[in-house]
Structure formats: structure tokens, C-alpha cells
């Protein structure tokens, strides 16, 4: 490994030996363009094309890994007289990529066998030639900052790169992650092309929510449910129900597409599934893991670098499915609360205004040729009368979970109960709230309705309420595009809109 500086203070070249990775952490305001000059390289499993610039911004932390060795060139942006070189950058030859690649190979075997079974072909020879364990349906568990999302991305990207036409379904059950939309959601998407990394605001690639991205070949159409909060402990019962709803949809899709089913499912989880913060009881943790196992018919559990959790999961599930402990990467960055809050705000802003990563000086759009570089969007602001949209909150505004109530105490409002909000009331909490616009019921003609039906509705988009004009009974709503909200229902959570 060597580093050289070919003259400009903003361009650096790194020669990476085989099986090493270049890790970087960007500061606020700085961006970085990476170009592969020679060899082969990948970012979280997504292969880099030779000669193409890849942009990274918004405090992105990532690594360029190479199996065979490569030369990469970095161009750094300078913003407000601060040289935009990453605050941390180094090359490491200690990576867990061998272990991850082995897991990928085992999952690949399961896919091939599942497809053979579906097509009625003889099972490939091997020690368990007679066994069909089904396609890989993988649950990834691990504590905070263990690299779960990165592992899920690597395994998904390796599957789509395998050249077999696999379309694994990536499921994000971590509401603090944001996935393809905004934080507070859980979602699933069939992945057909590598998931890119350019900004933590879109950690799993871009969703097809806008004209520019819908045209790009790998824009994704996620199925989304709104939980509304970043932490599981706010309402574990709701989380359980949403996971089961998401699972039902994913399994239904697979039932309709047996060929696609062979590609399998990869489920990313929140860190609170692995460790109990004081107010998330161990019971809830177990219940939510079980909800995932049941909902997605999990047959493989990967535990990222946590001995105690591995033992616990082995005990609970080891007799029914494969439980494997995989190493944590030394490159995973400890993300603090302030960083996570900045990224949440950035994700919500990106949802409305699109993603713009400033390219390093001297690199123009035509040189970069990357849609991620300027994905600016123009949201629509409209004024609507109070009655046009129905606003709901699930459970009380601040409510300790049932498990935290004194023994014998019952609450008057259930955690799952939808409460209608009056925009005219000062305590509605609607000003500057982010709300999820729910999809209409699938069978509106059905007469049999139930109270908690809204909990089972998917999300069709998100709105920000930027003004509440009580005297004139009007609301100003920011939405990604123009449209009528008449007769629709929107649910509030705990996320707020803030103009940057
Ligand atoms: N090998 C690596 N080199 C550099 N950065 C990395 C590497 N692996 C992961 N990261 C970064 O570390 C951060 C945390 O990783 P990741 O999101 O995968 O962990 P997690 O366990 O899913 O996090 P959470 O605590 O939110 O559940 C991310 O910003 C990610 O991009």
C-alpha cells in the first residue's frame, strides 16, 4: 500500500493491496469523489466501474475494499476555506470480508437449491443433497454500531452481482435508519441493482419518488409502514404489528412469484433488538425478534460480533435454524446521538428537496456524470382548509409502554388506539410536524371496518405542516409534489420539520 500526491493539494492517489480497504469519515460540509484508476474495488459490496467518479458527502463514513488490489484517486472538496480531506482516512488489511464472502456463498447455495426445487430440477450434489431448507431468509442482529446495515448491504449487493438475476428483498426494520424514505419507517424493497453509498441521507440507495430518480435504472419502489419514532421503546406493540404487516406483504409477494422467492430476504434490525436499554424490556426485545422470525419465515440468523447475544439466540432458535456469529468490522464508526439527529434532519430534507452533494472543485457535472450529484427536487407548498385531511396520533403523545406502568395499573388510552387531532387545539402538535399520508384502504367498499385499521395501512408519502392558521382554519402543507389530500388520513409521529 502506498499513497502519493500528484501535485494538487485536492487530489490524492492510493494504491491498495489485495484484500485491504481504504476507510474514510467525512466532516460536515466536505465531500469526496473517488475514481477507480486500475484494478477492482467495491463499496459495501457495490462494484466501482473503472474511470467513473463516485461522490460521497453529508458526513458519509465508508470504505473502498478490494479483493484483487487497485489504484484509486480521491478528489476532495473545500468548503468555507476548510480543506475537505476526510477527518479520518486510513488503509486497513484487517477486514471481515472473508467471513462475509463465505456467508454469501452459503446463501447463494440456498438460492440455487431453492430454484432447483421450484423448477423441478435435481438438487445440486453436496453433503445435504436431499435437504431443501428453502431460500435464504436472513435476520441480521447486533448491538449498536456493529455494522448490521453494512453487512446487509454487502450480502444484498453480492447477491445482485452474482449474475443469476436474483432480486433479494431487503427489509429495513430499524426506524432510526430511514432506509429509502425518512426515519420513523420500516420498509421492504426487491433489489435489482447494487445499493449505492454516497450519503447517510440515503443509506440504502435512492427510491423512485421523483422524476430524475425514477428514470435511473436502480431506483427502488419500497413498501413502507409508518411507526413515527426513532426508538422502539416508544411503542413496541405497534412495532410488532407493523413488522407482521410488512412480513405478510413480503411473503404474499413471494407466494405470487415463486421464482423471485429463491432470491431470499435480508432483514436489517435495530440495535435495541440486541441489547436492552433500560426502558426496552428484555421481553419486548424477544417478542420483536420473534415477530421478525415469524413474519419473514427466517431460516438463518446472523449475529454480528456479540458473544452473549449469539449464545442467547442459539439457545432460542439454534434447534430450528442456522445461527451464525460473524465478526464485526474494525472500520465501523461509533455514531453518536447528535450525528444521528443531524442525519435524520438531512433525510427528511432530502425527501422533500432531493439530494445534492457538492462535487470537489474542478469536477463539473459533465465530468462526474452522476445523477446523485444533483438530484434537486422542488416540493410543493399548498394551503388547505382544516377539514380536508384527518390527522391521527397512535396512542397518547407521551406514553410509557404498558410494561412500565405500576403493577395492576391499566391505562385509559391504549398504545394502539388512533386518536383524532384537532388542528385548532394548541396541543395538537401539528405545527412543523412530519406526518405520513396513509394509502387508502385496499377494499374501501368493504362495510366491515375496524377501529385500528389505520395501523395496517401502508404509507403513500410524507408531508410537513409548515403553518397552522387557526383564525382562518387553514394549514400550509409541504409535499413532494402537488396533489389533493381531500378525504385522506395522515398520522403524526415525533419527527419535526426544520428548514435548514
Ligand atoms: N468498514 C468500514 N469502514 C468505514 N466505515 C464503515 C465500515 N463499516 C461500516 N462503516 C460505517 O459505520 C457506521 C455504522 O455502520 P452501520 O450503520 O452498518 O452499523 P449498524 O450496526 O447498522 O448501526 P446502528 O447502530 O444504527 O444499528 C456507518 O456510517 C457505516 O457507513
UniProtKB/TrEMBL annotation:
<dbReference type="InterPro" id="IPR038238">
    <property type="entry name" value="Clp1_C_sf"/>
</dbReference>
<feature type="binding site">
    <location>
        <position position="21"/>
    </location>
    <ligand>
        <name>ATP</name>
    </ligand>
</feature>
<dbReference type="GO" id="GO:0031124">
    <property type="term" value="P:mRNA 3'-end processing"/>
</dbReference>
<dbReference type="GO" id="GO:0005524">
    <property type="term" value="F:ATP binding"/>
</dbReference>
<dbReference type="Pfam" id="PF16575">
    <property type="entry name" value="CLP1_P"/>
</dbReference>
<comment type="function">
    <text>Required for endonucleolytic cleavage during polyadenylation-dependent pre-mRNA 3'-end formation.</text>
</comment>
<feature type="domain" description="Clp1 P-loop">
    <location>
        <begin position="142"/>
        <end position="354"/>
    </location>
</feature>
<dbReference type="GO" id="GO:0005849">
    <property type="term" value="C:mRNA cleavage factor complex"/>
</dbReference>
<dbReference type="Pfam" id="PF16573">
    <property type="entry name" value="CLP1_N"/>
</dbReference>
<feature type="binding site">
    <location>
        <begin position="145"/>
        <end position="150"/>
    </location>
    <ligand>
        <name>ATP</name>
    </ligand>
</feature>
<dbReference type="InterPro" id="IPR010655">
    <property type="entry name" value="Clp1_C"/>
</dbReference>
<comment type="subunit">
    <text>Component of a pre-mRNA cleavage factor complex. Interacts directly with PCF11.</text>
</comment>
<dbReference type="InterPro" id="IPR032319">
    <property type="entry name" value="CLP1_P"/>
</dbReference>
<keyword id="KW-0547">Nucleotide-binding</keyword>
<dbReference type="GO" id="GO:0051731">
    <property type="term" value="F:polynucleotide 5'-hydroxyl-kinase activity"/>
</dbReference>
<dbReference type="InterPro" id="IPR038239">
    <property type="entry name" value="Clp1_N_sf"/>
</dbReference>
<keyword id="KW-0507">mRNA processing</keyword>
<keyword id="KW-0067">ATP-binding</keyword>
<dbReference type="InterPro" id="IPR032324">
    <property type="entry name" value="Clp1_N"/>
</dbReference>
<dbReference type="InterPro" id="IPR027417">
    <property type="entry name" value="P-loop_NTPase"/>
</dbReference>
<feature type="domain" description="Clp1 C-terminal">
    <location>
        <begin position="377"/>
        <end position="499"/>
    </location>
</feature>
<feature type="domain" description="Clp1 N-terminal">
    <location>
        <begin position="16"/>
        <end position="114"/>
    </location>
</feature>
<comment type="similarity">
    <text>Belongs to the Clp1 family. Clp1 subfamily.</text>
</comment>
<dbReference type="InterPro" id="IPR045116">
    <property type="entry name" value="Clp1/Grc3"/>
</dbReference>
<dbReference type="Pfam" id="PF06807">
    <property type="entry name" value="Clp1"/>
</dbReference>
<keyword id="KW-0539">Nucleus</keyword>
<feature type="binding site">
    <location>
        <position position="61"/>
    </location>
    <ligand>
        <name>ATP</name>
    </ligand>
</feature>
<dbReference type="GO" id="GO:0006388">
    <property type="term" value="P:tRNA splicing, via endonucleolytic cleavage and ligation"/>
</dbReference>
<protein>
    <recommendedName>
        <fullName>Polynucleotide 5'-hydroxyl-kinase GRC3</fullName>
    </recommendedName>
</protein>
<dbReference type="InterPro" id="IPR028606">
    <property type="entry name" value="Clp1"/>
</dbReference>
Amino acid at each position: 500500500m502506498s499513497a502519493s500526491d500528484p501535485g494538487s493539494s485536492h487530489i490524492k492517489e492510493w494504491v491498495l493491496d489485495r484484500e485491504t480497504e481504504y476507510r474514510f469519515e467525512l466532516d460536515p460540509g466536505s465531500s469526496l469523489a473517488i475514481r477507480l484508476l486500475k484494478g477492482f474495488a467495491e463499496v459495501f459490496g457495490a462494484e466501482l466501474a473503472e474511470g467513473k467518479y463516485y461522490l460521497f458527502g453529508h458526513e458519509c463514513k465508508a470504505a473502498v475494499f478490494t479483493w484483487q488490489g487497485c489504484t484509486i484517486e480521491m478528489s476532495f472538496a473545500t468548503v468555507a476555506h476548510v480543506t475537505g480531506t476526510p477527518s479520518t482516512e486510513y488503509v486497513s488489511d484487517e477486514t471481515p470480508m472473508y467471513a462475509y464472502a463465505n456467508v454469501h456463498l452459503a446463501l447463494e447455495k440456498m438460492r440455487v437449491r431453492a430454484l432447483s426445487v421450484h423448477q423441478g430440477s435435481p438438487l445440486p450434489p453436496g453433503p445435504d443433497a436431499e435437504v431443501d431448507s428453502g431460500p435464504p431468509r436472513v435476520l441480521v442482529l447486533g448491538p449498536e454500531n456493529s455494522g448490521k446495515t453494512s453487512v446487509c448491504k454487502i450480502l444484498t449487493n453480492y447477491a445482485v452481482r452474482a449474475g443469476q438475476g436474483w432480486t433479494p428483498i431487503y427489509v429495513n426494520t430499524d426506524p432510526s435508519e430511514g432506509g429509502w424514505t425518512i426515519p420513523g419507517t420500516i420498509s421492504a424493497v426487491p433489489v435489482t441493482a447494487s445499493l449505492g453509498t454516497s450519503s447517510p441521507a440515503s443509506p440504502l440507495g435512492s427510491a423512485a419518488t421523483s422524476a430524475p430518480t425514477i428514470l435511473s435504472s436502480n431506483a427502488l419502489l419500497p413498501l413502507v409502514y409508518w411507526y413515527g419514532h426513532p426508538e422502539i421503546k416508544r411503542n413496541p406493540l405497534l412495532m410488532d404489528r407493523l413488522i407482521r404487516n410488512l412480513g405478510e406483504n413480503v411473503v404474499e409477494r413471494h407466494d405470487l412469484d415463486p421464482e423471485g422467492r429463491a432470491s431470499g430476504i435480508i432483514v436489517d434490525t435495530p440495535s435495541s433488538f440486541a441489547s436492552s436499554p433500560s426502558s426496552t424490556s428484555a421481553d419486548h426485545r424477544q417478542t420483536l425478534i420473534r415477530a421478525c422470525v415469524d413474519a419473514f419465515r427466517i431460516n438463518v440468523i446472523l449475529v454480528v460480533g456479540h458473544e452473549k447475544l449469539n449464545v442467547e439466540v442459539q439457545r432460542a432458535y439454534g434447534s430450528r435454524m442456522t445461527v451464525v456469529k460473524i465478526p464485526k468490522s474494525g472500520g465501523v464508526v461509533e455514531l453518536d446521538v447528535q450525528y444521528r439527529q443531524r442525519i435524520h434532519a438531512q433525510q427528511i430534507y432530502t425527501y422533500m428537496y432531493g439530494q445534492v452533494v457538492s462535487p470537489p472543485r474542478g469536477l463539473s457535472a459533465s465530468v462526474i456524470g452522476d445523477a446523485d450529484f444533483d438530484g434537486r427536487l422542488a416540493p410543493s407548498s399548498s394551503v388547505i382548509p382544516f377539514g380536508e385531511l384527518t390527522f391521527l396520533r397512535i396512542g397518547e403523545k407521551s406514553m410509557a409502554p404498558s410494561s412500565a406502568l405500576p403493577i395492576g395499573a391499566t391505562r385509559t388510552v391504549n398504545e394502539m388506539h388512533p386518536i383524532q387531532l384537532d388542528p385548532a387545539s394548541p396541543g395538537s402538535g401539528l405545527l412543523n410536524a412530519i406526518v405520513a399520508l396513509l394509502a387508502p384502504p385496499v377494499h374501501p367498499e368493504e362495510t366491515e371496518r375496524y377501529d385500528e385499521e389505520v395501523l395496517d395501512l401502508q404509507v403513500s408519502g410524507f408531508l410537513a405542516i409548515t403553518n397552522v392558521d387557526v383564525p382562518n382554519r387553514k394549514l400550509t402543507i409541504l409535499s413532494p409534489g402537488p396533489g389533493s389530500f381531500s378525504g385522506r388520513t395522515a398520522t403524526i409521529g415525533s419527527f419535526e420539520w426544520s428548514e435548514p
